[in-house]
Amino acid sequence: MQGNDGDDGEGRYRVDIPAELVETIRKARHVVVLTGAGTSAESGVPTFREAQTGLWAQYDPQELATPQAFQRNPRLVWEWYAWRRSLVARAQPNPGHAALVELEQRVPQFTLITQNVDGLHQRAGSQRVIELHGNIARTKRFDDHVVVEKWKETGEVPPRCPTTGSLLRPDVVWFGEMLPEPALRAAMDAATTCDLFLSVGTSGVVQPAASLPLIAQQAGATLVVINLDVTPHVSPRACHLCGPSGVVLPSLVQAAWPVEEKGDA
Ligand code: OAD
What we know:
Elements: E1 4-7, E2 13-16, H1 19-27, E3 30-35, H2 38-41, H3 55-58, H4 61-64, H5 67-72, H6 74-90, H7 95-106, E4 109-114, H8 120-124, E5 129-131, E6 134-141, E7 168-172, H9 181-193, E8 196-200, H10 212-218, E9 222-227, E10 239-242, H11 245-256
Parallel strand pairs: 3-4, 3-8, 4-5, 8-9, 9-10
Antiparallel strand pairs: 1-2, 6-7
The structure holds 2'-O-acetyl adenosine-5-diphosphoribose.
Residues 36-38, 41-42, 47-50, 54, 115, 133, 172-173, 201-203, 206, 227-229, 231, 244-245 line the site of 2'-O-acetyl adenosine-5-diphosphoribose (OAD).
C-alpha cells in the first residue's frame, strides 16, 4: 500500500488515500496512534531532529535534558524549559490534532500514545492520551519525582518545593531516565492488541517508543507511517503516507467517513 501525494495544481496539498487503507480503517476495531514532534510542527512547536530547525540542531541535549545537566546548572535547564513552556502555551492545536479527535469518536476502540510533552492533543479534545515523555506544563520535585502544583515565587530559580525544599524541575523524561511505567505498559498493551497502528510525525529513533510500531506489526496490525518523508528505519511493509500530518490525517478521516464539504451540491 502506498499513498500518492502532491500539489493538486491549484496550490492545495493533496493526499490520495489507498482504497485498501480506507477499508482497513473503516473495519478496524482498535486503532492506535503514536505521535511525535512532527504532529505539533504545524502548530509552530519546533521538532527535535530536523537539520536546520530542530531543537537538537541548536541546543545540546546533554546540557539541557539530562539529570546531570540539571545538577550542573539547574537555572539554565529551568529557564530553557520555561521558554519552551511559554512557546507551547501560545501554540494552538492544528487540523491533524482535530482529525485524531474525530478518529477517536469514529472507531470502537482508540488509543492515542504521544511522545509530545506539549498537551496539544488534550487541548484539541482528545479524551485519553498516554503521555510517554511527560508533560511540560507539570512540575515535580527533583529529589523524588513527586508532582508539585503550587510553590512560592521567592525569586529563586528554579523554585523549591514548599514541603521538602527539593529543587523543582519539569515533569518530562530526560535522556537516561525511565519512562513512566504505567504509561509504557498501557502503550505496549495497546500496540500488541490493535489491528491498525498509525505512526505520525516521529523520526522513530528514541526507544522504547520507536519499537511500538514494529511490536504492533509483528502482532498482526496494519502499520501506517505518516511523515513528510519516507522514514528509513521502519518496516518496508508499512504503508507510507507522505505529507504534513495536518493535511494527511484530515484526508484519512475524510476518506474513511466522507462528509460533503460546504457548498457541495
Ligand atoms: P523528531 O524531531 O526526532 O522527529 C520529528 C519527525 O517529524 C521527523 O521525522 C520529521 O520528518 C517529521 N515531521 C516534521 N514536520 C512534520 C509534519 N508537519 N507532518 C508530519 N511529519 C513531520 O521528534 P520525535 O520523533 O518526536 O524526547 O522525537 C522523539 C523524542 O526525542 C522526543 O519526544 C524528545 C526527543 O528527544 C524527550 O524529550 C524525552
